[in-house]
Amino acid sequence: MLPPSSAETAARWQAERQRLEQEFGERITLDALTGPDGLIDREPCRDDAGGEAGWLIAQRKKGHRHSADDVLTAWYALQISPPVTEHLDLGTGIGTVGLLTLWGMGPAARLTCVEAQEISYRLLQANIDANDIRHRVDCSLGDLRELALNRTFLLVTGSPPYFPASAGIVPQDSQKAHARFELRGDVSDYARAAVKHLAPGGWFVLCFPYPQKQRALDGIAAAGLATVKLRDVIPRETLPPLFSLFACRHREEIDGDMEIEEPFIVREESGRLTVAMAAVRRGFGFPDGAAHGGH
């Protein structure tokens, strides 16, 4: 079967956006998730081999939106783990970490994911269908604390909510509230779900705020995992770290101390992307200097 034309791809995304905007009654943006920024308001680009330019992601203009922590969690997972044919993403939201990791693992890989928040799950469904990858994704609407798949994976990823409900004002918007605050479990619940589904020799990769690093380390250890590698992320030179990336394995498989890697810096003091961050973007198919925004 021939791949769909650029016009067919654009039409599919336009139709999906219209359905979502009618359903939600608000603006939905289509943003480049991987590959060159194909503008959906004109025919998206195709690569030199004739394939799709990349995947897009539909997200609410005023809702929870994907950010650098999602991108770098997926990137770190791809750096840490050997290629796998299947991986599990916990609390997948609209799909950023899971889909980026799936893209990076290659066309033979499959993703299993779970999400409890209904608005995010609806957008996840749209992003799976409009990217035409339904055949590669098994997703379920449910609480990761109750997940029992009776199977294990060599790679598990997650981006837990960052704050206890008592840490601030919980947004009235349900999607924002569940994405930011621990309303359905905390980082230790993610670790317990991960250890239950992590195959021998596998990796659990997640992110968590730098100021709460110890809380993540404690939750990981309490679940029976060991943090093998840890890398802080600095959003801009001269600023303190914003969040940390954790790579974990079953405790009994580890003999040695945790490796603390050099901090990853996203932007230079001038605001320009660092060489390291530019390389991350290239790894997800973006040319140097490509814009990354909604359409």
Describe this entry's structure for a reader:
- The protein is α/β, with parallel strands linked by helices and 295 residues long.
- The protein has one domain: 3-Layer(aba) Sandwich (Rossmann fold).
- 31% of the residues lie in helices and 24% in strands.
- The strands form 2 sheets. Strands 3, 4, 5, 6, 7, 8, 9, 10 and 11 form a 9-stranded mixed sheet that branches.
- Strand 4, helix 4 and strand 5 (137-141) form a beta-alpha-beta unit.
- The longest helix has 19 residues, at 6-24.
- The two termini are 30 Å apart.
- 41% of the residues are buried.
- Residues 37-52 and 290-295 have low confidence and may be disordered.
Present the secondary structure layout.
Blueprint: H1 6-24, E1 28-32, E2 56-60, H2 68-80, E3 86-90, H3 96-105, E4 110-115, H4 118-130, E5 137-141, E6 153-158, H5 174-180, H6 187-197, E7 198-209, H7 213-222, E8 225-236, E9 243-250, E10 259-260, E11 264-267, H8 275-283
Number of domains: 1
Helix/strand/pairing class, anyone?
Answer: alpha/beta
Give the CATH architecture.
3-Layer(aba) Sandwich
The count of helical stretches stands at 8
The CATH topology annotation reads as: Rossmann fold
Largest sheet, in brief, is: 9 strands, mixed
Instruction: Calculate the mean pLDDT score and round it.
Output: 89
CATH H-level superfamily = Vaccinia Virus protein VP39
Gyration radius (Cα, Å) is 19 Å
- SS strand fraction: 15-25%
The low-confidence runs, each spanning 5 or more residues with pLDDT under 50, are 37-52, 290-295
